[in-house]
Amino acid sequence: MVGHFWPLAASAALFGVTSANPSQFPHRYQNVENRLRQRGSSGTPETTSPPFYPSPWMNPNADGWENAYAQAKEFVSKMTLMEKVNLTTGVGWEGEQCVGQVGTIPRLGLTSLCMQDSPVGVRLTDFASVFPSGQTAVATFDRQLLYARGLAMGQEHRGKGVTVQLGPVAGPLGRAPEGGRNWEGFAPDPVLTGIGIAETIKGIQDAGVIACAKHFIGNEQEHFRQAGEAQGYGYNITQSLSSNIDDKTMHEMYLWPFADAVRAGVGSIMCSYNQVNNSYSCQNSKMLNNLLKDELGFQGFVMTDWGAHHSGVSSALAGLDMSMPGDTAFNSGLSYWGTNLTLAVINGTVPEWRLDDMAMRIMAAFFKVGNTVGSQVPINFDSWTLDTYGPVHMAAGIGQQQINHHVDVRADHGTLIREIAAKGTVLLKNVNNALPLNKPKFLAVIGEDAGSNPDGPNGCSDRGCDNGTLGMAWGSGTANFPYLITPDAALQAKAISDGSTYQSILANNQWASTSALVAQDSVTAVVFVNADSGEGYINVDGNEGDRQNLTLWKDGDALIQNVSSLCSNTIVVIHSTGPVLVDAWYDSPNVTAIVWAGIPGQESGNSITDILYGAVNPAGRSPFTWGTTRESYGTDVLYEPEGPLPQLDFSEGVFIDYRHFDKTNQTPVYEFGYGLSYTTFSYSNLQVAKTGAAPYTPTEGYTGAAPTIGTGNVSTNLNDYLFPNASFPYVWQYIYPYLNTSSSAKAASGDEYYGLASDSYLPPHATDGSAQPYLAAADKISPGGNAALYDVLYTVTADVTNTGSVAGDEVPQLYVSLGGPNDPPVVLRGFDRLSDLAPGQTGVFEVALTRRDLSNWDTTSQNWVISDYPKTVYVGSSSRKLPLQCTLA
Ligand code: NOJ
After folding, report:
1. Cα-to-centroid distance, 116 and ligand 1 (Å)
2. Residues with beta carbon inside 6 Å of ligand 1?
3. Measured in angstroms, how far is the CA atom of residue 305 from the centroid of ligand 1?
4. What are 570-625's pLDDT values in tens digits?
5. Are 648 and 689 contained in the same domain?
6. Residue 844: CATH number of its domain
7. Per-residue model confidence as pLDDT tens digits over 672-689
8. Where does the record place the Fibronectin type III-like domain (predicted)?
9. Nearest-CA neighbor of 181 among 232, 217, 222, 132?
10. What are phi and psi of 169, to 5 degrees?
11. Considering 117, 305, 532, 809, which one is annotated as catalytic?
């Protein structure tokens, strides 16, 4: 058993514990105000991350977690120290069949927990569906559809034997439109993303699968997210980028949707690759202990992103609960945890209660979604091959057996996928009644984006290319298409059934034939164009995950301009991962319609056909702003590191996307929340009712002490932890909790080895299991922060009337002006999708405005405060079309 054991003598360095002046580590509750008084004003980025210890332990009375806690306690009480460690540490990259798995607990009948991407479907398998991206789904502004998508994805994961679906995504939020993974998330607005992530989580977990809200936190760009990856691209950096975010911006923007995730009961959260204020996210006690577990009261477990683990003891004390995929670097055979965590608990560096808490959190999440030990769906697929037979331990190449059972989990989800993609499609322009199409005489479809990839829909690994129609972007947030209906196939079928003439040229550069086609008489030309992006480990055409620019790919602008110069009825369809620059052609009179179809998934062609022909009346709303130039956004990706530890200052504070355009008084091409319909709506009768909710009370008092779940009697005899015996089936490169020597105890003694006083290299209070005071903004039982933040203070209603001639959905939106000099002019606080309003019919739009909706984060009191500035509510159809308004009394 050589190769997976790291000598303990090296462990303090390995664990990333740095010696420090204890005065730098005030008790987590001492002097919080003084400590933070100078910090955290909006737009002044933090460059250091204060310590916060001890790590909060689970609360047996947390709302929605009581039963899960009781079941977990019963199970965890029976576990040995090494069994607990086994639950916290992945078995190594490609050690088993899922993208991540932890060790088994055979003695207690628990098979391995399976972590599997992705946020759009079950990744790396067959007979599973590909759903529209989160960004496209949230453009529906439809809570029911967001929930239904989550439920369907969860059902598919469950059917494959997945325990944790690695999604949904609220980081990136979308600070910069170029951000490569914005499409995996929802929108650069915390409220829209918060509702998107909460509904998706509820759906996934109702299907019996643990959701994983990721990436926590500040993971806003691909460049420099991992030092090794960046070095591979030739950048001279030594550490991952630090996202420097002030306290106010953190609370009002980036943390907000994670609060909604926690409130929705999410079972797991993935900490990100990047550093936050110069401390790695997965060992950042301020982020994990303070914000996530204490203030938000998160009861589930924190897992690392794959390879985002950089230390042993310090990550454990900072609030990490699971190491993924378990090895230090892929296939190193070494782990920061595993053996090292076993030793750290034996020698007291990590208190036993902290390990108990990790195991409790993992098992509680397992039980919370309805699992029972012994009846898990067996893992019936393999991420590393689609072959039916192969090695179950792919990295080691051993354990030949049937690893793919090819279980078809798709049910009738294709219908839902088609509906979501159509309802998330945004009609940006429509003049001369260009749309809906009505049996056009001659339909010409132009562009590579309407056709198929010559290598097939899954021809590029993790969709790392932009060939054919863009049904999915690239990276780990993907799944294999079971089929991909191209726009060309669906539109052709529809046109032919209507008796139209139909021709398509599925290339962007066939100028001669394209010109000849679209210049013909009576042609309606539909031009398909796209802009792609993805995850940083794949470079597509010079785009290292993040987009290099905001222009259309493959000469899309030239294609549109050429076609529209010859055809007076040119309709443009855009598939993209975010906004693109349309300034060069959007107002051309020959461009009669523009449609954003997002990242639609497997039913792409059917969904766009439903919109173009009016089977679905469009009501999707743009989940981001369409600026005139790249610079107009005021934020961008950092593309060139300025030093070995790149610093990404969020100096814009809360002013991203529409908040920035509004503040700087710039007129975008299309604003956030904008979208047209084939009918029209009027808004009237705004009513605001004050509820008389009780005043806000900061939480006071103390938690209980860290519970004893284990025996409290950890043997310090290393012989008790030795690797079983020669007949134990050791798997090469696999991560185990066992020791392979009993002779390291002396060397392992921190005092002797470092010549330091006992524990002096640990932050003060890091091992303190005594009762701790509650934070004012936290809650004693309710996850998501002080429950009174969610008290409804006002109920707002307005009438929305269909004034056109066809039935349609409308998305009324409510914005609030918080009124302060440093507040954005308006912020989204509520919306609804009123479905199927008949001509002349009036629907009532209703929003319950909560205390949080009207508050700012106060960095001094470390709490939410409603300022004295006058508050105004606005209601309308986009962030800039707000015909109704009322000042709150
Ligand atoms: C890295 C990605 O950032 C994360 O989103 C994903 O879940 C893991 N890889 C596993 O594939």
Report:
1. 9
2. 99, 117, 166, 214, 305-306, 476
3. 6
4. 999 999 999 999 999 999 999 999 999 999 999 999 999 999 999 999 999 999 99
5. no
6. 2.60.40.10
7. 999 999 999 999 999 999
8. 810-879
9. 222
10. -115, 125
11. 305
